[in-house]
Amino acid sequence: MDGSFNNFTHFSMFSENGFNLKHAGKFSNWAIFARGNHWICDCKVYPFAKSLELFVPVWSQLYFFMTCDSPRQLRNKTFFDIVAASELDQLVCHLSLTDWCPPQCRCFYQPSIENRTVVDCSGSRLTRFSSVLPLYGNLEIDFSNNSLRNLKLIERSKLDNFNRIRKIDLSNNNIEVLSNIALYRFRKLQLVNMTGNAIKRTPRSLQMLKPCQISLGKIIMKCTCDDIWLKIWLPLQYQKCANNTQALCSTNGLFLSITEIEKEDLGCKVSVINVSLVNRSICAAFFAVIIFAMFIYKLRFELFIITRTVITFFRKPLSTTSVIYDIYISSNEEDEQIRKWLLTSLVPNLEKKGLNVFLFFRDGTIGEPREQETIDVISKSRNFIILLSDDTLGTQHWNKREWKYAWNYYKSDFSRELIIINYDLLTYDDVVKQFFRGFFTLRKVIDFSNYNKNIEEDVVAMLK
Question: Membrane-spanning regions, if any (predicted)?
Answer without folding.
Answer: 277-297
